[in-house]
C-alpha cells in the first residue's frame, strides 16, 4: 500500500503543479498530454487491480480504448476523446477507492497459488507502472515551455574524497548471477536468474560529467564522422545535433569553452551547465561517439550489472550496489528529491564492491546492448510489457535516474529506448577491456588513469 500511496503523491504533485490548459496541452509530440497520463494511470489500475485481481465490475470500461498505450501513438493522443482534468481526477480517485477495497480483502501471501497475487505482485506491478509514468510526466515538465512550476533543494555537495577518486575501477573476470528469481516484484524481463561469464574490464568510477562531455563538444566531436556509427552520423546531420538537449551557448567568454559559456534549461530555469554533474539528455549515438573519442567504449549490459551487483568477497549478486537494503537518501539520488543529478563522486555509502559510485540514481546509463530476453524468459502477465520490444531497435539503459521512484529501480531493473531518444534523463559511463598489463598493474597496486583524452571522472 505504501508504494501505491507514494506513487499517487507524485502523480498529484506533477499534475496539480500546472494549469488545466497545461494539463491538456501537448508539450512535445514525443510525449502525451499530462491529462492522458493521469487517466491512463487510473485505467491501468482499474484493469489490473479492480477487475483482474479483485474480480469486480469495471469503473469505466468504455475508456479502455482511449487509454490503451499500444493503440494510439503519443503524437496522436490529443485527438482522442480524453477526460478533462476534473473528470480524470475524479476517475482516478474512484478507481483508487475500489482498489483499497480489493487490497483489504485480498490474500497476498508469498505462497499464494495464483502468481499474479503471490507476494502482492500485481499491486507492485501497478505501483511501478504509476512510478514510471511519474518519471515520464517529469520529462514532459522538462519539455514544457513557460515559467518554472517545480522546485526542489539542491543535492548535497560532493564528498571530500570526490576529486581523489580513481578515474576507473577494475571489475574482475569470471561468472556472476545476472537477473533475479527471488525479487518479488521483479518484472518479466528481469527473469530468470542465470550465470553469465564476463571477462575482466575497467569501468569509469562515476558517470561522464558535463565538463568532460563539453571537451568532446569543443574538440569538434559533432563535426567529425569518425567518432560516429553510420546511423549515428546520419542522425546527427538530420537532427542538427551540436550538444546535449537543452544546452545553449551564451555570448561572451565562459568557463566551458572559447565561444562562450554553456547554459541549460532545467524545468524552466536557465542556469550555467554544472561541470561536475553527470551529463544527461544525450542519446545512445552521442554516448557511443563520446566513448570512441575517449578511446573507450560503452559497457555491455552484463558488465554494467556485474559492476553494480557482484561481490567478489562472497561470490553473490546483491540487490543493489551497496547491499540488499532498500535505497535510502544516503545511498542514491532517487525519487525526484532534487530534480537534478548530484555531483560526480557523491553517495559513497551507495558504492558498489567494485568501487564505482552512482550506479543507481542520478542518470540512466546507456549500455552497448540491444534489449533482448534472458535465457528462459517467459512473458508475464502480458506480452506488451517487454516481449514486443525485444530486438535491435532498442538499447538498454540501467541504473535509474533522479526522476525514478525506488519502487521502480533496483540492480536488476532494465530500461530500454530508441537510440535517438534524448528527452529521457539519460547519461552514461565508459569502459575498456582489461588487457593483461593493466590487470598486472592493478594486482600490484599501481594506479592507472583512463585512456583517451577524457574519461568519466569528476571534472
Keywords:
three-stranded antiparallel beta sheet; 459 residues; paralog of FGE (formylglycine-generating enzyme); globular; 2 domains; Four Helix Bundle (Hemerythrin (Met), subunit A); disordered C terminus; alpha+beta; four-stranded mixed beta sheet
What does this structure look like?
The protein has 459 residues and is of the alpha+beta class. It is built from 10 helices and 14 strands. It folds into 2 domains: 2-143, dinb family like domain (Four Helix Bundle (Hemerythrin (Met), subunit A)); 155-459, paralog of FGE (formylglycine-generating enzyme), CATH 3.90.1580.10. Helices cover 28% and strands 13% of the residues. The strands form 5 sheets. The protein has a 4-stranded mixed sheet. β6 (262-266) and β7 (269-272) form a beta hairpin. α1 (2-16) runs parallel beside α5, α3 packs parallel to α4 (85-104) and α3 (34-53) packs antiparallel against α5 (121-143).
- Global morphology: globular
- Helix fraction, binned, reads 25-40%
Residue ranges: pLDDT <50 for 5 or more in a row? Answer: 252-257, 437-459
The H-level CATH homologous superfamily of the largest domain, spelled out, is paralog of FGE (formylglycine-generating enzyme)
Q: What is the terminal separation in angstroms?
A: 42 Å
What class do helices, strands and sheet pairing give? alpha+beta
CATH architecture name of the largest domain? Alpha-Beta Complex
Q: What can be said about the biggest beta sheet?
A: 4 strands, mixed
Please count the beta strands (DSSP E, at least 2 residues each).
Answer: 14
Number of domains: 2
CATH topology of the largest domain: paralog of FGE (formylglycine-generating enzyme)
Tell me the β content: 5-15%
- Provide mean pLDDT, rounded: 92
Instruction: Specify the CATH class of the largest domain.
Output: Alpha Beta
Amino acid at each position: 500500500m505504501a508504494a501505491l500511496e507514494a506513487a499517487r503523491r507524485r502523480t498529484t504533485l506533477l499534475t496539480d503543479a500546472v494549469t488545466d490548459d497545461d494539463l491538456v496541452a501537448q508539450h512535445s509530440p514525443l510525449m502525451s498530454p499530462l491529462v492522458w497520463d493521469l487517466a491512463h494511470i487510473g485505467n491501468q489500475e482499474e484493469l489490473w487491480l479492480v477487475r483482474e485481481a479483485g474480480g469486480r465490475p469495471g469503473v469505466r470500461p468504455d475508456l479502455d480504448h482511449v487509454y490503451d498505450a499500444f493503440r494510439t501513438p503519443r503524437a496522436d493522443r490529443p485527438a482522442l476523446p480524453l477526460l478533462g482534468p476534473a473528470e480524470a481526477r475524479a476517475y482516478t480517485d474512484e478507481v483508487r477507492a475500489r482498489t483499497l477495497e480489493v487490497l483489504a480483502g485480498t490474500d497476498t501471501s508469498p505462497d499464494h497459488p495464483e502468481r499474479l497475487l503471490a507476494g502482492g505482485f500485481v499491486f507492485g506491478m501497478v505501483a511501478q507502472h504509476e512510478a514510471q509514468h511519474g518519471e515520464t510526466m517529469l520529462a514532459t515538465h522538462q519539455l514544457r515551455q513557460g515559467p518554472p512550476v517545480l522546485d526542489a533543494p539542491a543535492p548535497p555537495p560532493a564528498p571530500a574524497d570526490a576529486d581523489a577518486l580513481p578515474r576507473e575501477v577494475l571489475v574482475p573476470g569470471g561468472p556472476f548471477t545476472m537477473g533475479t528469481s527471488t525479487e518479488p516484484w521483479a518484472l518479466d524481463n528481469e527473469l530468470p536468474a542465470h550465470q553469465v561469464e564476463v571477462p575482466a574490464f575497467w569501468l569509469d568510477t562515476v558517470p561522464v560529467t558535463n565538463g568532460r562531455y563539453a571537451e568532446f563538444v569543443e574538440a569538434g566531436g559533432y563535426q567529425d564522422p569518425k567518432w560516429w556509427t553510420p546511423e549515428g552520423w546520419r542522425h546527427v546531420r538530420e537532427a542538427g545535433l551540436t550538444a546535449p538537449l537543452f544546452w545553449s551557448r551564451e555570448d561572451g567568454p565562459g568557463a566551458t569553452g572559447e565561444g562562450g559559456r554553456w547554459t541549460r534549461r532545467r524545468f524552466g530555469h536557465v542556469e550555467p551547465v554544472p561541470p561536475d554533474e553527470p551529463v544527461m539528455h544525450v542519446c545512445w549515438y552521442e554516448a557511443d561517439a563520446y566513448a570512441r573519442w575517449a578511446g573507450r567504449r560503452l559497457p555491455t549490459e552484463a558488465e554494467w550489472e556485474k559492476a553494480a551487483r557482484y561481490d567478489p568477497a562472497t561470490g553473490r549478486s546483491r540487490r543493489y550496489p551497496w547491499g540488499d537494503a532498500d535505497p535510502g537518501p544516503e545511498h542514491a539520488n532517487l525519487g525526484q528529491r532534487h530534480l537534478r543529478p548530484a555531483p560526480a563522486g557523491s553517495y559513497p555509502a551507495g558504492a558498489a564492491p567494485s568501487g564505482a559510485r552512482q550506479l543507481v540514481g542520478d542518470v540512466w546509463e546507456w549500455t552497448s546492448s540491444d534489449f533482448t530476453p534472458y535465457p528462459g524468459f517467459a512473458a508475464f502477465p502480458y506480452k506488451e510489457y517487454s516481449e514486443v520490444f525485444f530486438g535491435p531497435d532498442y538499447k538498454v539503459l540501467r541504473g535509474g535516474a533522479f526522476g525514478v521512484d525506488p519502487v521502480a529501480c533496483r540492480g536488476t531493473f532494465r530500461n530500454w529506448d530508441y537510440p535517438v531518444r534524448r528527452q529521457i534523463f539519460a547519461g552514461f559511463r565508459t569502459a575498456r577491456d582489461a588487457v593483461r598489463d593493466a590487470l598486472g598493474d592493478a594486482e600490484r597496486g599501481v594506479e592507472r588513469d583512463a585512456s583517451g583524452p577524457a574519461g568519466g571522472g569528476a571534472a
